[in-house]
Design brief:
The protein is mainly alpha-helical and 222 residues long. It has 11 helices and 3 strands. The chain has 2 domains: 126 residues, dinb family like domain (Four Helix Bundle (Hemerythrin (Met), subunit A)), CATH 1.20.120.450; 77 residues, Nonspecific Lipid-transfer Protein, Chain A (2-Layer Sandwich). Keywords: Isomerase.
Length: 222
């Protein structure tokens, strides 16, 4: 994808997320998402951070994480997200609407990171609530390429060594070994460490994959 197409896919994904959470009852906002320890409310708040974050905000978040004995990227992001999650639902929805077309990036990230963030967190809410809202396959493939190519933070190639991943709805295959087949959405969730993806995968390697990954993977995305 050209960068302008990536930005268009980000806007589409963000708009889909807004439509998803705006249609939920307030009680659903309090339900757990696929992200460990985060409610739907927290995931929604998290997606307002990237379009507005600054180096100063991230540095402050890391300093606070250090003071709490959680000096890591995950610790910093968890603190920033939980703080953002104290805002009321209406304020978060307004911020999400305002962020749809934003091209602002968090320091040190790229448009493809923003695409991963938007697509995967939409699934973190939809799957947790039993809502079928698959990602557009081409956009999900672009996000999967980013996750596969870069070790941090998911270590996808290391975790999935020995498996050949094949998308059923778009041309994409990576890895070598026993075949695991699924939609591009399911494979993206697998790449980003969501065990919920395992129920939507087929192929000779799917059962072995479930045995090897389920006890170790955690459902979270910084």
């Amino acid at each position: 994808m050209a960068e302008e197409d990536v930005w268009a896919a980000i806007a589409t994904a963000r708009n889909s997320f807004v439509d998803l959470v705006a249609g939920l009852d307030p009680a659903d906002w309090e339900r757990p998402s696929l992200c460990t320890g985060w409610r739907v409310h927290d995931v929604a708040a998290h997606l307002t951070l990237a379009p507005t974050s600054s180096r100063a905000a991230l540095a402050l978040g890391f300093a606070r994480a250090l003071l709490r004995g959680r000096a890591s990227f995950d610790g910093m992001m968890d603190i920033l997200t939980r703080d953002a999650g104290t805002r009321p639902r209406e304020e978060i929805l307004a911020a999400l609407h305002a962020a749809v077309g934003s091209h602002h990036l968090a320091p040190g990230t790229t448009p493809r990171v923003a695409l991963v963030d938007a697509l995967v967190h939409t699934q973190d809410v939809a799957v947790a609530l039993g809502i079928d809202a698959p990602a557009p396959p081409v956009a999900a493939r672009e996000a999967a390429e980013r996750v596969w190519a870069v070790s941090f933070p998911f270590r996808a190639r290391q975790r999935l060594a020995g498996f050949r991943l094949v998308a059923a709805d778009v041309s994409w295959r990576r890895g070598e070994g026993q075949q695991v087949t699924g939609s591009m959405t399911a494979l993206l969730l697998l790449l980003t460490g969501r065990p919920a993806a395992l129920a939507h995968l087929d192929g000779d390697g799917a059962r072995r994959l479930a045995r090897s990954l389920a006890p170790h993977d955690r459902e979270e995305l910084p």
